[in-house]
């Protein structure tokens, strides 16, 4: 009689963190846990007691579950046996090697499995006897390296930039003076993955029906929409509270942040209570961190002269008094710039051709299906003027295409349309270049060339008939020009440059006005004016009229956006004509100089020397440098500087760094004080092996 086989007993399971982290581009996340990407095999080694697995007598069945209510129908529970081959699109376990009492396996997940936290167990049976073993836990992410995944990107350089890179730039300033702001996304820093999963687990859709929500996490369209809603806190326990009124005393100014990590950690530490405060680039940057962390290729984009159109008529109307000053306080307006994110994915829910970059906007502006979120909407649909496309195409189309009409209210109350060619909506749409610290202009992804037949067709498709009408020309043109040396703390000149290209002489009144302005278009006090009652323009002539702007006038009312709006209004009574020109001017902050002392090697201490010269004519107090850098610093560091820092004085501080691993890192620095706020600097640090 044959001897009965002893039951198979599992001693331990090795999740092969190092090998899997390397193969799945998750090494930074795999130091103490298993994090893998879907649609790609990962290693597992089973160590048995007494005897090894024998295919002829033993049966191994694996069980992987995610969420609080897993089920096979929902795709949140999988049962699969050890087999000889992988069935495409299914969970599978294949033996790769067998020695003594160890069995090495490849486990494969479907490329459309829900992402999230999984529990993995094993049922080992010999004849009629069986035992269950808990093998461990793992986190499954989207996989842009897998051709079958909805987020697949075929360029390795782009995958590196849009999934793996932890630092980058966000573009601010104005269309004519684009300013790059360094940002530490830090998606692989300690605790961030858990925070991103927590964010998914407290979203209202999960709280309403956890099983359905976890099942739908197979779709990047669904996950992107959830993240768009959860980065703001308007409907839920989201991350950030927005504020735009320059009163940030009970929180942190949006301009102060230099990375997403500190924001996300504060949110988690305070029991998922909203963090004060964010504005558009902060919302977009945090969304970028979360989406990259979950494996969705994502980038932050900036649109200059961005329209906020509430009634979807693709028209922003400004009503002004006879001096050109805006009268009504309204929420429909043009923002200097506005940031959102684009994520790369297929759109099986839409017609072919709409895969690729999708716009998602986490800044709470308008409700979408009852929730403050926006997108994802295919960028291609915006370009084509296809406004019926999910989600929120009309709002995003207006951001880059709305028309602006200025009405001058005359003494008798009648309205007169002014001509303003200086304000074009949707300019210089910008994102960081792949693999380089340069700006890439992606306006062509959103808009056809101005005046082209394709542009006209897109406007007709969108029923944007204002744009199909040819612009009125008068023969007299005006634009605002700037001089040199527009640095914070300095006096400088701006110019109204007027051209008369007609054979007639023109006479009129020129009103020039400069006011501080926030990036979202809210005007502050005046800081310079000029009124020329009798301005004559000879036939075929040009004139430049200067306006001096003094530091003493703007110093106390300049917002942290560092922007001044200059407006010129040329009134010709004889022709009953109003010509308007505007320009937003960005004032440069002083430079933060960063020196790295010592040779950057993995796990070897380094010192960064930071310095800045006070450019103002007054002393600074409350000065501090704040430093972040994924892979260089584990926690954000702040160094306070003794008061006062006199006018023209240079301050220097030293900060200890500890490069954790080899590679290219970016040190991101913020300087803050009472009168000079949110000055940014960065330095690339190449760390060699130890």
TrEMBL record:
GO terms for cellular component: chromosome; cytosol; mitochondrion; nucleus; plasma membrane. It catalyses: L-glutaminyl-[protein] + histamine = 5-histaminyl-L-glutamyl-[protein] + NH4(+); L-glutaminyl-[protein] + (R)-noradrenaline = 5-(R)-noradrenalinyl-L-glutamyl-[protein] + NH4(+); L-glutaminyl-[protein] + serotonin = 5-serotonyl-L-glutamyl-[protein] + NH4(+); L-glutaminyl-[protein] + dopamine = 5-dopaminyl-L-glutamyl-[protein] + NH4(+). Pfam families: Transglut_C, Transglut_core, Transglut_N. Monomer. Interacts with phospholipase C; promoting alpha-1 adrenergic receptor signaling. Interacts with PLCD1. SUPFAM superfamilies: Cysteine proteinases, E set domains, Transglutaminase, two C-terminal domains. The active site is at 280, 338, 361. Binds 1 Ca(2+) ion per subunit. It comes from Muntiacus muntjak (Barking deer). PROSITE patterns: TRANSGLUTAMINASES (PS00547). This is Protein-glutamine gamma-glutamyltransferase 2. GO terms for molecular function: GTP binding; metal ion binding; peptidase activity; protein-glutamine gamma-glutamyltransferase activity; protein-glutamine glutaminase activity. The keyword Nucleus applies. Ca(2+) binds at residues 401, 403, 450, 455. Keywords: Acyltransferase, Calcium, Cell membrane, Chromosome, Cytoplasm, Extracellular matrix, GTP-binding, Hydrolase, Membrane, Metal-binding, Mitochondrion, Nucleotide-binding, Nucleus, Protease, Secreted, Transferase. Its cofactor is Ca(2+). Its EC number is 2.3.2.13, 3.5.1.44. One of its GO terms (biological process) is proteolysis. Residues 272-364 form the Transglutaminase-like domain. It is found in: Cell membrane; Chromosome; Cytoplasm, Cytosol; Mitochondrion.
């Amino acid at each position: 009689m044959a001897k009965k086989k002893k039951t198979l007993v599992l001693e331990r399971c090795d999740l092969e963190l190092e090998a899997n982290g390397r193969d799945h581009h998750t090494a930074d996340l795999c130091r103490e846990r298993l994090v893998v990407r879907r649609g790609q095999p990962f290693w597992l080694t089973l160590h048995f007691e007494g005897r090894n697995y024998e295919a002829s007598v033993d049966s191994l069945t694996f069980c992987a579950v995610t969420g609080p209510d897993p089920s096979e129908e929902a795709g949140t529970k999988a049962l699969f046996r050890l087999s000889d081959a992988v069935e495409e699109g299914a969970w599978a376990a294949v033996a790769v090697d067998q020695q003594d009492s160890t069995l090495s396996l490849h486990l494969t997940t479907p490329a459309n499995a829900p992402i999230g936290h999984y529990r993995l167990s094993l049922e080992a049976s010999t004849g009629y006897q069986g035992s269950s073993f808990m093998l461990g836990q793992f986190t499954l992410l989207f996989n842009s390296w897998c051709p079958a995944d909805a987020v697949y990107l075929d360029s390795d350089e782009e995958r590196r930039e849009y999934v793996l890179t932890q630092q980058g730039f966000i573009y601010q300033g104005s269309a004519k003076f684009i300013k790059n702001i360094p940002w530490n996304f830090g998606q692989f820093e300690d605790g961030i993955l858990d925070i991103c999963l927590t964010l998914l687990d407290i979203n209202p859709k999960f709280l309403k029906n956890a099983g359905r929500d976890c099942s739908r996490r197979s779709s990047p369209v669904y996950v992107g929409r959830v993240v768009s809603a959860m980065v703001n806190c308007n409907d839920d326990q989201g991350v950030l509270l927005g504020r735009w009124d320059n009163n940030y005393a009970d929180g942190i100014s949006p301009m102060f942040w230099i990375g997403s990590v500190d924001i996300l950690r504060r949110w988690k530490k305070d029991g998922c209570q909203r963090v004060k405060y964010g504005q558009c680039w902060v919302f977009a940057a945090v969304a970028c961190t979360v989406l990259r962390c979950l494996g969705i290729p994502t980038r932050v984009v900036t649109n200059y002269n961005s329209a906020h159109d509430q009634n979807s008529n693709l028209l922003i109307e400004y009503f002004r008094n006879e001096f050109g000053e805006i009268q009504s306080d309204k929420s429909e307006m043009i923002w200097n710039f506005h940031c959102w994110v684009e994520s790369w994915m297929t759109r099986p829910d839409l017609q072919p051709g709409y895969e690729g970059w999708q716009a998602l906007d986490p800044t709470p502006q308008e409700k979408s299906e009852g929730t403050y979120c926006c997108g994802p909407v295919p960028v291609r649909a915006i370009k084509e003027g296809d406004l019926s496309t999910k989600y929120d195409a009309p709002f995003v189309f207006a951001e880059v295409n709305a028309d602006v009409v200025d009405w001058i209210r005359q003494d008798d109350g009648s309205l007169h349309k002014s001509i303003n060619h200086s304000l074009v909506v949707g300019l210089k749409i910008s994102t960081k270049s792949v693999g380089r610290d340069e700006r890439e202009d992606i306006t062509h992804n959103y808009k056809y060339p101005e005046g082209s037949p394709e542009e006209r067709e897109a406007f007709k498709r969108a029923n944007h008939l204002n744009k199909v009408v040819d612009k009125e020309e008068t023969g007299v043109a005006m634009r605002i020009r700037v001089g040199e040396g527009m640095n914070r703390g300095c006096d400088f000149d701006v110019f109204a440059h007027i051209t008369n290209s007609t054979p007639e002489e023109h006479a009129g009144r020129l009103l020039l006005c400069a006011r501080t302005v926030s990036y979202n278009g809210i005007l502050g006090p005046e800081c310079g004016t000029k009124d020329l009652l009798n301005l004559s323009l000879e036939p075929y002539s040009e004139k430049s009229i200067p306006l001096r702007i003094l530091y003493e006038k703007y110093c106390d009312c300049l917002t942290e956006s560092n922007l001044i709006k200059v407006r010129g209004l040329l009134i010709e009574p004889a022709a009953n004509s109003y010509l308007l020109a505007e320009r937003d001017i960005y004032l440069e902050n002083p430079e933060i100089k960063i020196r790295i002392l010592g040779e950057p090697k993995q796990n070897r201490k380094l010192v960064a020397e930071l310095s800045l010269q006070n450019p103002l004519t007054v002393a600074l107090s409350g000065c501090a440098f704040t430093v972040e850098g994924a892979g260089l610093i584990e926690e954000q560091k702040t160094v306070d500087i003794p008061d006062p820092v006199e006018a023209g004085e240079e301050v220097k501080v030293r900060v200890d760094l500890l490069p954790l691993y080899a590679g290219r890192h970016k040190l991101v620095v913020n300087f803050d004080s009472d009168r000079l706020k949110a000055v940014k600097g960065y330095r690339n640090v190449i760390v060699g092996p130890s």
